[in-house]
Amino acid sequence: MKLGIVTGIPGVGKTTILNTIKEILSKENSKFLIMNYGDYMLKTAMEMKYVSNRDEMRKLPLNVQRQLQLEAAKNIYKDASSLGDGLSFLDTHAVVRTPGGYLPGLPKHIVEILQPQVIFLIESDPELILKRQENDKTRARTDYSDPAVIKETMDFARYSAMASAVLVGASVKVVKNVEGDPSIAAHQIIKSLV
């Protein structure tokens, strides 16, 4: 199993980059899987009647978020393992900003289940991230609407990614999302995981 965890603050362009990876690998007839940690958590949270949409999850008590993280990790590992030697990509956050503080997206008990080879940090200029967030009317991200908060969150994401990588011997790679050409970041990620 080859698993790359693709992280970044909301609005940095993870989904766009992962969609580009999907296009590239589909054209190459490669065996791959793209998963979203939030989808796995949301499915469980909705089944348990904790939330009605994804953005409400960040506001849940930390103990509930931890429980949802654990269930998601088990299911993600199972799905990635079923792919054999194919490439698996997991869209998630290295940290989640909550009312109770920064919650590690990849704490010890989670990263040890997932066993990634690489943790990718997608980054962009905070002002550019703000502009992308404003243009995305499908999500409510008012808790990330200040450039200082975006910068602070990206700093915490770097610290968290490295701490998680140390636990499983993974590497950490910072990938800049260049405006207008997500294929640059997509190719860097594919090359680093193969």
UniProtKB/TrEMBL annotation:
<feature type="binding site">
    <location>
        <begin position="8"/>
        <end position="16"/>
    </location>
    <ligand>
        <name>ATP</name>
    </ligand>
</feature>
<keyword id="KW-0808">Transferase</keyword>
<keyword id="KW-0963">Cytoplasm</keyword>
<dbReference type="GO" id="GO:0004017">
    <property type="term" value="F:AMP kinase activity"/>
</dbReference>
<keyword id="KW-0418">Kinase</keyword>
<comment type="similarity">
    <text>Belongs to the archaeal adenylate kinase family.</text>
</comment>
<dbReference type="InterPro" id="IPR023477">
    <property type="entry name" value="Adenylate_kinase_AdkA"/>
</dbReference>
<protein>
    <recommendedName>
        <fullName>Adenylate kinase</fullName>
        <ecNumber>2.7.4.3</ecNumber>
    </recommendedName>
</protein>
<dbReference type="GO" id="GO:0005737">
    <property type="term" value="C:cytoplasm"/>
</dbReference>
<keyword id="KW-0067">ATP-binding</keyword>
<keyword id="KW-0547">Nucleotide-binding</keyword>
<dbReference type="InterPro" id="IPR027417">
    <property type="entry name" value="P-loop_NTPase"/>
</dbReference>
<dbReference type="Pfam" id="PF13207">
    <property type="entry name" value="AAA_17"/>
</dbReference>
<dbReference type="GO" id="GO:0005524">
    <property type="term" value="F:ATP binding"/>
</dbReference>
